[in-house]
Amino acid sequence: MQNKFFQRAINRILAALVLLAFGSESRMKAAEPLPRAICSVIREVYIPSPKPGVSPIVGVQYLGKGLRRREFLGQQSKSDLPEKMKVRFSDDNGRNWSPPAPLDTGADSLRQGEISREDLSFAVNFDPASRRTIEMVFQRVFLGDASDVLHQYWKGDKKFYDHMMYRLSSDDGRTWTTERQLTFEAGAVFNPTNWANPDYLHSNELYGGYDVTLLRNGQIAYPASIRVAHADDDEDLKVRATVPKYASPVSGYVGGVTCFLGKWNKKKNDYDWTHSEPVFVPIRVSTRGLGEPTIAELKDGRLLLEMRGSNAGLDPVKYPSHKWISLSKDGGKTWSPVTDLRYDTGEPFYAPASFAKFIRSHKTGKLYWIGNISPKPADGNGPRYPLYIAEVDEKIPALKKSTLTVIDDRGPEDTKAVQFSNFSLLENRKTLDLELFLSRFGEKPGSKFSANAYKYTLTFR
């Protein structure tokens, strides 16, 4: 039954790829700015670059259901490696802040012999069912110095392992429970005295999403990327032989996405977790699998799962890169075959390998999507511009093309490597404006990390 389900999904995707490769180029137009945007956008420097080759990074979250904010501050001079992390808090919606305090969460400070580790807050939300704030914590264990391990990874030698933890707070993030692990298979649990236990490292590997979604049925949904066993067909075998080693998992596996569903259990003061069967695509559709997933609940109760894909190592015209979606009609237990996210006109669009976010405005009641749409065939991770916001047509579902509004785009002073991704997003609980925090990597010549961190304020009309 699973094979038939998967084959239908493949056929649907391949049919779309054939259409794109033969004669559909005229339909794949770059998004054009609207004569009247759906919101105003104000951009301001939030933290300037401290020195060439170093960019500040910012992440802002609400803790609890009130106005208490937490802000992570750090620096970045190497890909995927935040450093010098600090945290500060505000109890008045960001008007006044506590002094920044150092955090021992980065690989530059967490060490156990030659092993290094980073712990990063990936997602936070207040759950009315539990009356607690839940935080999803990403843990990455490096078998060696983090910078060296990541350098070797891009050469095809992977020596780091990802897992997801969670913790709870009943006092708006002032105190937390011990961390608990999200699992989907048998395996050893994390041992604080032995980070590199192979039975732990090689089981329950997860890369979680950046949002915890509250469902109307009282549960929470949290999507995460996992490795899925899958036998390559002849075409995938050919593709796997040509793409860079880092771009795809080892033979016999692809990168997929599963949905964790949490239901609050009052007796044990914890969640009971279940998870769905994973959704996935062959590597000729996405060489690096499906990742950085996000979920929105539509007005009719369906769940919309959006995922990043990548055509790294492939011809970007023959194998176009898109945003990928799946739907659930039963609260996240099962999911439809994967297909590409489109405009409400039926037109496809190009998108790089970068994450996107959904957010429902309390001001308009509408669901919005924020992400990169490329003006030309995307090649792996780029180009990561422009950054758009668009309203979601929740019946199809699709992006309403007439609502496309540019948040930021490459300007005449920006380099070709500029990117508008890896952003932090929240809705201001007093003004109901959206606040987006982003480091404009690549905005200046030289190192792509010679960039400022900016705050964007989006006010709906």
What does this protein structure show overall?
- By secondary structure, this protein is mainly β.
- It has a domain at 36-53 and 352-461.
- The protein is built from 4 helices and 27 strands.
- It has helices at 2-21, 146-153, 198-201, 234-242; strands spanning 39-47, 55-62, 69-76, 82-90, 101-102, 110-112, 115-127, 132-142, 160-169, 180-181, 207-208, 213-214, 220-229, 253-265, 270-275, 291-297, 303-308, 323-328, 339-340, 357-360, 367-372, 387-393, 398-399, 405-408, 424-427, 434-439, 453-460.
- A 5-stranded antiparallel β-sheet has the order 6-7-8-9-10.
- Strand 14 and strand 15 form a beta hairpin.
- The longest helix is centred in the N-terminal third of the chain and has 20 residues, at 2-21.
- The protein is globular and about 60 Å long.
- The model is unreliable at 1-30 (pLDDT under 50).
Q: Name the helicity range.
A: under 10%
Largest sheet: 5 strands, antiparallel
Strand content: 35-45%
Class computed from helices, strands and strand pairing: mainly beta
Number of helices: 4
Features:
37% strand; globular; disordered N terminus; single chain; mainly beta; five-stranded antiparallel sheet; 461 residues
